[in-house]
Amino acid sequence: MAIAPRANAVREDLLRVEGVTKIFDGIVKAVDNVSLTVATGEIFALLGGSGCGKSTLLRMLAGFEAPTQGKIFLAGEDITNLPPYQRPINMMFQSYALFPHLTVWENIAFGLRRDHMPKAQLIERVESMLSLVQLTKYAKRKPHQLSGGQQQRVALARSLAKRPKLLLLDEPLGALDKKLRETTQLELVNIIEEVGVTCVLVTHDQEEAMTMASRIAVMSEGYFLQIGSPDEVYEMPNSRQVADFIGNVNIFDGVVEEDESDHVTIRSADCLHYVGHGISGNSGMVVGVALRPEKILLSKEKPAGTFNWCEGEVTEIAYFGAYTTYHLKLKSGKVIKAQELNNTRDLSCGLTWGDSAFAQWSDLAMVVLTQ
Amino acid sequence: MNNMTNYLRRFFNGRHLVIGIPYLWFLMLALVPLFIVLKISVSEMESTSVSNMVSWSQGWPSIKLNFASYVFIGSDELYVKAYLSSLNYALLTTVICLVIGYPFAYFMARSPKHLQPMLLMLIMLPFWTSFLLRIYAWKTLLVSNGVINNVLMSLGIIKLPLEMMNTPFSLMVGMVYSYLPFMILPLYANLSKLDMRYLEAAADLGTSPLKAFWLITVPLSKAGIIAGAMLVFIPAVGEYVIPELLGGPNTLMIGRVLWDEFFSNNDWPMASAVAVVMILLIMLPMAIYNKYQSEQLEPKP
């Protein structure tokens, strides 16, 4: 799903976070012993629900919070105790925090002036930033005279103007409406790629994380559940929480019946699963079988064979245009979701409310979750 | 007839009444008195009662204008001096109030949330006693055998009592003391709303905290500074009680002159003219500022 997965060339680590913990007021553990490395040129996303500690971690990278424990290194240098104004890191704030009393031009020049950049060079840098975000015409305006999308671009230009080693993005698209978000997402990634800056972004929106980032860390209650590329996190979640958080998923609770090196069979309340790869477990083990809705095929005819299908009644139909989501109530009372692509203009499987339908899937569609 | 009742009904609906009350208030208690003062200021000495403000000639009301008082204000050095010294003391009061009040309001706005109501209370506390009493209290503190001199002398810091009373110093003490809350309150209201993210953004872009204060906090609190300055400056220009009680022979202020014209000289046209000029002196800078402010707010094409 990533728009521009970056080349896997060996790069040196730019950012290294070692065992960082943040405890507020002596009791609230916002970030719990977290370690990570971000390579030069990477776009790294911290993904999680509200209160998972992602913003606190970002604020520690920016220098607004000091870690209770642990160390932060940037390009090999320990920056743990450096105040924000001495770090070669810039941040694009959630809802931007553009200075309301300054014009677009002055906002972008603000950081450069603090470095006492020579005037000619400063003018050139600001102009190039303005043209990068296509706001040259708006240089003289105040932030409140701009639209949300324009403000977002000013904020980006301001945070890029100093050519930071690391760019932090706090919910970069959170303040925009859905339609604008899609186009801005692409624009943002293109600009970041053009500048070639390393990025850490924080978001609660999994689509945003998956389209923009080359790697994602899924966070919950202050620690990382999983770190991986967007497709790894989506197709190979390592736990129920990750599977559940990223996209839609059906999870069947089952017991391992047969455990071979090249396959396993699992019995759940409604069906028998044949998984086409081995797992690190043993027979009799209680596991979850995760199955994404788009990997299920619905039909009215009973499938052949004994594995990887189940029968149910259609209880809900949600039409999204490009695809339709069906809710199927199984015999045990469990409801699963199945997504059918509308690849012809007549609704292909012709199912309606109350119909009895069969769901089937391939033996490579499932992920066995042991935790 | 029917038309008339309809018209009346439309006029006296709830919305008009609600908006009408403050307008009526403003009309009765501000515009009408102001008009009377204006009228008296351009009258002859003899015709200074409200009833014969308007004279009747051939069935039409006529108003005779007499600008002698205004001419006199311009020509007599006393008035010009009094105006200048009033503006001077009011400006000084405003500046001192700002210098003391800004840090005060700043730390109040930054203090823990649960302490703020108490701090606010401390600012308001003096209002519980009469203004006049508080000014008299300063008198007992500042006079030659007053509390301050006694303490300083008994500690051996000074040999002779300091002459503080009836000097510009005692006047400024009284003025700053009385008007300080009017500076602090609007500043506090403004500063407590300041979005901390602006300061974080400034720090992120390489600004030290002190620099960020001058580049971000102060410009963003401009509205509070102006509101506070207006609340202090305007009443301070016309202040009468404080210069009367704490001021001396060399602290001439226009409020004193006004009082003298009304009650010692009984020259109402002159007194009214002095008042009108004072109002104009205060209103002119305000009007200019308002115009500038509304131009700032208009979006540029």
Description:
The complex is a heterodimer of chains A (371) and B (301). Chain A has helices at residues 54-62, 104-114, 119-132, 148-160, 178-195, 206-212, 230-235, 240-245, and strands at residues 13-24, 28-39, 43-47, 69-74, 77-78, 89-92, 166-170, 198-203, 215-220, 223-228, 250-259, 264-268, 272-275, 286-291, 297-299, 309-319, 323-330, 335-341, 356-360, 366-369. Chain A has 371 residues and is of the alpha+beta class. Chain A has two domains: 13-241, P-loop containing nucleotide triphosphate hydrolases (Rossmann fold), CATH 3.40.50.300; 251-369, RNA polymerase II/Efflux pump adaptor protein, barrel-sandwich hybrid domain (OB fold (Dihydrolipoamide Acetyltransferase, E2P)), CATH 2.40.50. The relative contact order of chain A is 0.12. Chain B is mainly α. Chain B folds into two domains: 1-66, no CATH class; 67-293, Orthogonal Bundle (MetI-like fold), CATH 1.10.3720. Chain B is built from 14 helices and two strands. In chain B, helix 2 crosses helix 14 (268-297), helix 4 packs across helix 8 (168-191) and helix 8 runs antiparallel to helix 11. Chain B is globular and about 75 Å long. The relative contact order of chain B is 0.12. The model of chain B has no long low-confidence stretch (mean pLDDT 86). At the A-B interface, strand 6 and helix 2 of A face helix 9 and helix 10 of B.
